[in-house]
Design goal:
The complex is a heterodimer of chains A (606) and B (419).
Chain A lengths: L6 H28 L2 H10 E6 L6 E2 L5 E13 L9 H8 L3 H14 L5 E7 L1 H10 L6 E10 L6 H4 L2 E3 L2 H6 L8 E3 L2 H5 L1 H4 L4 E7 L5 E4 L14 E4 L3 H10 L5 E7 L4 E8 L12 H10 L8 H4 L9 H11 L30 H7 L2 H12 L7 H14 L21 H8 L23 H13 L2 E3 L4 E6 L2 E4 L4 E3 L7 H13 L16 E7 L7 E8 L6 E7 L9 H13 L7 H8 L7
Parallel strand pairs in A: 2-10
Antiparallel strand pairs in A: 1-8, 2-3, 3-4, 3-5, 6-7, 8-9, 10-14, 11-12, 11-19, 13-16, 14-15, 17-18, 18-19
Helix pairs in contact in A: 10-20, 13-15, 14-19
Chain B lengths: L6 H4 L2 H21 L14 H21 L3 H5 L1 H18 L1 E3 L2 E7 L2 E3 L1 H19 L7 H20 L3 H6 L3 H7 L4 H19 L2 H18 L4 H27 L3 H11 L10 H11 L12 H4 L11 H33 L4 H25 L17 H19 L6
Antiparallel strand pairs in B: 1-2, 2-3
Helix pairs in contact in B: 2-3, 2-16, 3-18, 5-6, 5-7, 6-7, 6-17, 6-18, 9-17, 10-12, 11-12, 14-16, 16-17, 17-18
Classes of the chains: A alpha+beta (606), B mainly alpha (419).
């Protein structure tokens, strides 16, 4: 009887069952049909997006010798969440790190992400990789990802080749193609041709279990993309000439720039002292970079493009060309010279007076050139010193002095060709005349050029009035097809006919009885050159030389600067001559000055 | 007219079919959860699914035995069975094997049994016996207390084994008491205590005390302010405030850190997805990624690659959710609801108090397991390690649930023999 009163309770219990079931169904509805995040999470759990790194493009010299290739290296990756180390010490021993390093690396990896992979130990060399990989199954959470490292079989042209390094956060922000840990060209042609060399990354989607063990491709690889290798480059550099130039510049500070005048292709670009590009590859880079950076000889500094020097007497050629074009100078114009007693600029060479144009180049007469300069700047047709100076300056700009080239060199200095405003400021408006700034006439004063500009000046003369921006890459090989890069021809303000007397003067620098480089003449190659001795207030003068050869249809134009080398004829001229001979003839009998150049050490005692 | 003697005819086949459906669907999902390419046969007894097949077969044999035994046996021997199982609990405390922190396994040869699982039906039998014998009125708190002792003894032993999950199952008998006349206020107070418990952990004590005071004042404003009512409200308020501080103290000193963590994770105080929240998080990912129709049999990536721990046992519902989707999950929920409602119906048609109360015990235990297990996999309740009846992998649990259910089926089939 008593139970009767509780009849309603069975309905309440039934109600509770129904209510709870409905609550579960609503929850299931929300979790399975409304909320999308669980599907994403499930994918994140099980799918590993494994980046397929493409092989970076190879780099060859102009004759097809390999300059840069790739070598396999392996990054040890870690997913901190999955790490279950039983014996940490054993693991440290395997990888070759200390326990402290291990802790530090784990902290760093965790800070990045505890469930995403990050690099634990980068670039394990292939020698130790095999051993580590064999044992790695014991350590869940770790795996290796293969990468490629750059390798340089010839240890040459470090500055031109440049190097690659991990992308910086800034670079990632600017270009979303890159991900943390990717490599990017940091300098040299690696940087200039990054888009060609890098190729296209691929992506493999793999399924993994909770221990990150691979369980095969996702959807049979339907969504995988393969990596596309980078394009190969053919450089303008001539490996033999480059290496020879580096040999000649050993133990000296300075640069050599050699250009093929007909194309603007840089045959050799030497900045000394240099370094072995293999030092900046892989794990050793971290130790070596600061060492190179702190070196007082500044091996990382590319003098050929970045160092600026007064051109010295080599500038007299430009002075002569401007005078000829302006019509204030002809082959027969003579100016007297009082030698060492000459005023306002003394002459460093002892010769008869007065000299005509061609001999003035051969013997590098200083007074001749301030006279030429004076005749240009004081030319009444321009009305004022200022106007005439601006015209003179325009000529220099047309030789690309005072300006950088628009090519693949990326980092260059422009040198310095002062504007008239500079002198206005310095001397006051109308406070200066041609003779106030006479040092310019012999390539001193405010005038500054880079070795590259000097070499280009030699190319302009060799070409009789035009040039191509000097560049380092000749062709890109895209899928086996070679595409030549064609630079734009640039014409200077001096007509071709005015070059002949200047070239004749340069020929006599070698061939003339009193030529400043007559000791280095070679009967097989008619060479043209001009010495320069750059006054250096900080020490021994810089030895400068610019040259090209042969006289007709020139194949090579060159500029050499040897810091603290003294007279142009002492170091720069023989080195330039040897370079020309190496390029034109190849092997030739040893000359007395070749040994001297290779063996001289201008750095000792510093 | 039904024959009183044909037992097969008298059995409730609806319930048996539901039982078989659950056991077989459970088996398929265990197969999917621990699927191993090297052991593809579902009958491979080196794998959990092969073992489960043995458990299923033996369960059916057990069911047959239970049906063959005379129904009076269960009534007559209920205290004896209860006593025997209590003895087994003592035995397991002495000789038992510790598995992941709980000393609840009794090893017999190469296989283990968990006496605590069998304690459920034994307690149900004893409780039914006690409540059906005399005119017990559960409004009488003394008699309620006596009934509670029958439950409290096994709970104590199971708690000693460190198996809180199973011990908590005995709370489900509260529903039986309720049905048998325990005042509803006891149930309501119990629920309020539970709510207050969670609130204590969720918000700061001072704010909670403020809320309680405000509630008391509001209540005092609306009711008839007789001295007696005011006294009751004041008592309730004081009791609640005291409770808040006791719970707060207890939570921080009595509960073990991992238990604190589990509660905190559920309450959203913690979001440690790799630690205590990992199971629930991965479980939700598995279920959530199933979508409408599921990823298909053996296609669940969460399942296949072991992202959900304990997936073949306590978290078996994840596999259902991931591979069979919304359709499969709802089907399982509806199947359980149907079984529970069927159990209520059968309990109500019993002619003896014993069978009826036992029927309610079966209902309560299965209901508790079902609701707590699904709620925890859906992230609605802290992770309490109890299996989903008939689905989860495990011999003891399957055997124990089979015995629990089939004793009732036998009692039900025999009801026409009772006058």
């Amino acid at each position: 009887m008593k139970y009767k009163s509780y009849e309603n309770r069975k309905i309440i219990l039934k109600g509770i069952v129904v209510l709870i079931s409905i609550a579960f169904i609503i929850r299931l509805f929300y979790v399975q049909l409304i909320d999308e995040k669980y599907v994403l999470s499930a994918n994140n759990n099980v799918l590993r997006y494994v980046t397929q790194y493409p092989a970076r493009g190879l780099v060859y010299d102009r004759k097809g010798d390999l300059l840069i290739y790739n070598e396999a290296a392996y990054d040890l990756m870690v997913i901190p969440r999955l790490v279950r180390l039983v014996d940490t010490l054993e693991f440290c021993e395997l990888v070759g790190i200390s326990k402290e390093e291990y802790i530090l690396k784990m902290v760093r990896a965790r800070k990045y992400s505890s469930h995403k992979a990050s690099v634990f130990e980068p670039q394990i060399p292939k020698e130790s990789y095999g051993y580590i990989e064999e044992k790695l199954y014991k350590y869940p959470g770790f795996y290796v990802q293969s990468r490629t490292l750059r390798s340089y079989p010839h240890a040459t042209a470090a500055h031109s080749l440049g190097y690659i390094g991990e992308v910086s956060p800034g670079e990632i922000e600017r270009n979303p193609y890159y991900r943390m840990g990717d490599y990017i060209g940091k300098s040299g042609i690696e940087k200039a041709y990054e888009l060609e060399l890098r190729g296209q990354k691929g992506m493999k989607i793999k399924m993994v279990d909770v221990f990150n063990r691979e369980k095969g491709a996702y959807m049979e690889g339907r969504f995988d993309t393969t990596a596309i290798s980078g394009n190969n480059l053919v450089m303008t550099i001539d490996l033999v000439l480059q290496e020879y130039g580096e040999l000649l510049m050993k133990n000296k500070r300075g640069s050599i720039v050699a250009i093929e005048p007909a194309t603007g292709e840089i045959l050799a670009l030497i900045s000394s002292p240099s370094y072995d590009p293999n030092l900046l590859v892989g794990r050793i880079r971290k130790q070596n970079y600061p060492l190179l950076e702190e070196d007082t000889l500044k091996p990382l500094f590319n003098r050929a493009l970045l160092a600026m020097y007064p051109p010295g007497s080599t500038f007299k050629l430009a002075g002569a060309l401007i005078g000829l074009q302006e019509g204030v100078l002809n082959v027969n114009t003579r100016y007297s010279c009082a030698g060492v007693g000459a005023l306002p600029i003394k002459c460093s060479h002892n010769h008869y007076s007065p000299l005509a144009l061609i001999e003035s180049i051969e013997e590098s007469c200083n007074p001749y050139y301030w006279n030429v300069f004076k005749s240009v700047i004081d030319n009444p047709k321009y009305g004022s010193t200022r106007n005439a100076f601006e015209k003179w300056r325009k000529y220099l700009l047309s030789f690309n002095l005072g300006e950088t080239f628009k090519s693949d060199l990326l980092i260059e200095r422009s040198g310095n060709v002062p504007e008239s405003a500079y002198y206005d400021k310095y001397f006051g408006k109308n406070g200066w005349r041609s003779m106030t700034i006479r040092s310019l006439s012999i390539g001193q004063g405010e005038l500054l050029v880079t070795p590259l500009q000097l070499a280009n000046m030699a190319a302009i003369i060799a070409n009789r009035g035009f040039y191509y921006d000097p560049h380092l890459v000749k062709a890109i090989i895209r899928g086996g097809k070679k595409e030549n890069l064609l630079p734009e021809k640039k014409i200077t303000m001096v007509e071709p006919r005015h070059f002949e007397p200047v070239i004749e003067g340069m020929r006599r620098v070698y061939a003339g009885a009193r030529g400043t480089a007559r000791w280095y003449a070679d009967e097989n190659i008619p060479m043209c050159g001009k010495t320069g001795t750059v006054q250096n207030p900080h020490g021994e003068n810089h030895s400068v030389f610019m040259a090209f050869a042969p006289v007709n249809d020139p194949k090579i134009a060159i500029a050499v600067i040897v810091e603290n080398g003294g007279y142009g004829s002492t170091f720069a001229a023989p080195i330039a001559t040897l370079m020309i001979k190496k390029y034109m003839i190849g092997e030739y009998p040893l000359t007395w000055y070749e040994t001297k150049m290779i063996e001289t050490n201008l750095l000792s005692g510093k | 007219m039904r024959s009183r003697n044909n037992i097969l005819q008298n059995l409730d086949w609806q319930l048996i079919l539901m039982y078989l459906a659950m056991v077989i669907f459970g088996w398929i999902n265990i197969y999917a959860a621990v699927y191993n390419v090297e052991h593809q046969s579902i009958l491979d007894i080196s794998q959990s699914y092969g073992k489960q097949m043995i458990w299923i077969t033996s369960s059916i044999v057990l069911a047959l035995i239970i049906i063959i035994i005379d129904a009076k046996f269960y009534t007559v021997f209920s205290y004896f069975i209860y006593g025997f199982m209590l003895l087994m609990l003592v035995v397991v405390l002495v000789f038992g094997k510790e598995v992941s922190g709980s000393k609840s396994w009794l090893e017999i040869g190469s296989f283990g049994l968990q006496p605590a699982e069998f304690m459920k039906f034994a307690t149900a039998l004893a409780l039914s016996k006690y409540l059906s014998v005399t005119n017990i009125d559960l409004k009488n708190l003394r008699e309620l207390a006596k009934a509670l002792v029958i439950i409290a003894i096994p709970v104590l032993f199971i708690e000693l084994q460190n198996d809180t999950g199973t011990a908590l199952v005995f709370v489900s008998f509260a529903l039986v008491f309720y049905r048998q006349g325990m005042p509803a206020t006891v149930l309501i107070i119990g629920l309020s205590v539970l709510v207050l418990f969670f609130l204590t952990l969720l918000i700061s004590n001072l704010i909670l005390v403020g809320i309680l005071t405000a509630a008391a004042l509001t209540l005092g404003f609306f009711i008839n302010r007789t001295p007696r009512n005011i006294a009751v409200i004041l008592m309730l308020l004081l009791g609640a405030v005291a409770f808040v501080f006791i719970v707060d103290y207890g939570f921080n000193t009595i509960l073990k850190p991992h238990q604190q963590m589990r509660v905190n994770v559920l309450l959203g105080n913690e979001t440690d997805l790799l630690g205590a929240g990992y199971n629930v998080h991965q479980s939700l990912i598995a279920i959530g990624s199933g979508g409408f129709a599921g990823k298909g049999f053996l296609q669940g990536t969460q399942t296949k690659y072991n992202f959900v721990p304990e997936q073949s046992t306590d978290f078996i519902f994840c596999t259902v959710g991931e591979e069979w989707g919304f359709i499969g999950s709802v089907a399982v929920v509806v199947l359980f609801a149907a079984m529970l409602i069927r159990l209520l119906k059968l309990a109500e048609r019993q002619r003896t108090h014993f069978s009826k109360i036992y029927g309610y015990c079966v209902f309560s235990i299965i209901f508790f397991h079902f609701s707590i297990n699904i709620a925890m996999t859906l992230g609605l309740f802290p992770v309490i390690g109890i299996p989903l009846p008939f689905f989860s992998y495990g011999g003891s649990s399957l055997w124990a649930f089979t015995i629990l259910l089939f004793i009732f089926l036998k009692l039900d089939a025999d009801r026409l023999n009772v006058l």
